[in-house]
């Protein structure tokens, strides 16, 4: 047999073996066969083309360098769609497993920017009461006495972060809310006749 034929045949064999290594559990035996046949293919390519035509040898080497990794990538891309691949690859985790308290976090986020009353001292953890529900809360680092008005400023997971609201701030916010509720059509400004 011609050395060039053996080089090409052994390169094809190494390609088949690397595909088989992906799909068949051989414990690395097929990978060893791939490297042996690839080494032998390069040896026969060297015998066939090194002295006669080095360009053929380097072309063969470049083709092998591109062929084998692309074949391996293609085999791994096809693997999840085969029956064998679906059996060996596990499904990803369910959304409930990744974010186990997503529903609770979404419920707590509905309380953002609302006011509540502390039931226990927040040192910095304690309980607040909002909508007749006791919620575990943390202050932003300051101690907050019981029966104080606090504002829910942040939700981190299932933790509610609150900030104490002074009576002056509470009164200013109520006044601002009342001003925002005024009807612009019935303002207190003087109506000027249309000219």
From TrEMBL:
Residues 182-195 have a biased composition (Acidic residues). It is a multi-pass membrane protein. InterPro entries: Membrane_assoc_protease, NA-bd_OB-fold, NfeD-like_C. Residues 175-195 are annotated as: Disordered. Residues 110-163 form the NfeD-like C-terminal domain. It is found in: Membrane. The chain crosses the membrane at residues 6-24, 29-49, 55-79. It comes from the Bacteria. The keyword Transmembrane applies. Its main location: membrane. Keywords: Membrane, Transmembrane, Transmembrane helix. GO terms for cellular component: plasma membrane. The keyword Membrane applies. It holds the Pfam family NfeD. This is NfeD-like C-terminal domain-containing protein. It comes from Rubinisphaera italica. The lineage of its organism: Bacteria, Pseudomonadati, Planctomycetota, Planctomycetia, Planctomycetales.
